[in-house]
Amino acid sequence: MDKLGEEVPGGPVDPDVPVPDVAVEPAGTVAAGSGRRRIIGISIASVAAVIAIVAISAAVIAQGGSAPATSPSATESASESPTPSDPESASPSPSVEELVAAPHVGTGFPEAFVLTDSVLAQAGPGWAVESYASYPDVYDQEPAPPTASAVYLVDPTGAHFLAYSTGPSDAASGLTAVAWRESTGEVVLDHGDWGVVEVLDLSAGEATPLLASLLGVPSTDTVADLVMAAADGAELWRAWDGTSSRYVRWSDDGGYEFAAIDRKARGDSSFTLPPEWDQEKGLRRDGRVALFHARDNPDDYTSQEPDTLYAYDVSTDLVLSSRFTPGATIPDNYECYFETWQGADSLSYFCNLSSTNLPWTAVIKGLPALGDPVPTYASESQIGVVGMTSRIAYGNATDPQLLLPACSC
After folding, report:
1. Does 274 map to a domain?
2. What domain count does the chain have?
3. Residue of 35, 160, 206, 329 with fewest CB within 10 Å of its CB?
């Protein structure tokens, strides 16, 4: 196989001594600019509590009384539930010493904290990765100005931690997180129509373009495309080598290596990978299996009907096949087209001639059961309006709908 804050002081307060400003330490535009260092932050709630105590103390002194000592429990209780400026935000689960408010990216983006290594280390079941951006209107002659984009780590309470952000740009429009490599702390980002795919290091806050050459495909400038990402972390990638599509599998223990479906295409003369415009035919709902078609005579383009069906399981790197043999109810002169997956091993086709359509169900035996849970596509973004472009829960596959190619028709 080819390897490719500091503690708020208590005690009496002199009303004639000005109260110093206490500010939350700012972070850079990209959250990783904080250096991921451990920060003892002072929450907005803590600051408000201190100011209130100072005001009460001053009033008591003015009436001839003495100022009460600042109670440690008062400041501690105010510091235990730091939240972003959104009053409806849930209290975050990480400890208060690690929480510092992150700069707000803009309208439509959630309030968030800076993402630190200690917060990242807590990610597990119940956590998720979310991306936010707007989609450009490619048909608008005078499109709206581009917007920023951002990626967040979200804890089980719904608190957001800013992992990465970009300023307004055309490439930022449509940015979507399409895979979360939990074992390596990375997120795969797709910039949509701009054809840019990057791998974001959540700890460093840096995104690196993923070119075909990094996959082992002999191409220096071609960007790779993510085909699918299973719940166990295995991914299938596609890249153009100048002549044909090559398929590469990524796993946390093996890195990039040519996938079994690619090796079969180059070792079996009866099977050829589909041309660039007609790639894999369909992805199973759990993001684990991809369907490919093959014809006995690859040079015969008179019919789109396949002769053999191939199912590639990215989790096991295995290929299963089945001959495509429509029954007697489908006339020989009908052409059959793949429509959708039905469950774990059944494939729905429609066969037509002129205006007459007939259904046909094909089965590929031996495929694993559907993964649980089947991922649910989530997007709140609209054309020209910032919203969530994707949400990938910890331990879940990537919903195939996130990976469908954008229509350029």
Report:
1. yes
2. 1
3. 329
Domain that holds residue 331: 268-313+317-367
Q: Does 286 or 80 have the greater pLDDT score?
A: 286
Q: Is residue 354 part of a domain?
A: yes
Q: What's at 383, amino acid-wise?
A: I
- Compute the radius of gyration of the chain from its Cα atoms: 27
Reduce the DSSP state of residue 205 to 3 states and report it.
coil
DSSP 265-282: HHH-TT--PPPTTS---E
* Residue at 18: amino acid letter: P
**365, 363, 364, 357: which is closest to 329 by C-alpha?**
357
Cβ–Cβ < 8 Å for 153, 187: no
Reading across the β-sheet that carries 245-251, which strands appear in turn?
225-229, 235-240, 245-251, 255-258
Task: Give the H or E element holding residue 29.
Answer: none
Per-residue pLDDT of 136-182, as tens digits, reads 665 666 667 778 899 999 999 999 999 999 988 777 778 899 999 99
Please state the pTM of the whole predicted model.
0.73
* pLDDT tens digits, 315-326: 999 999 999 988
Helix, strand, coil % in the chain, rounded to nearest 5: 15, 30, 55
In a domain, 286, yes or no: yes
DSSP letter (8 states) at residue 231:
T
CA 53 to chain centroid: 44
Assigned domain for 332 exists: yes
DSSP state string for 115-159: --HHHHTT--TT-EEEEEE-B--TT-SSPPPP--EEEEEE-TT--
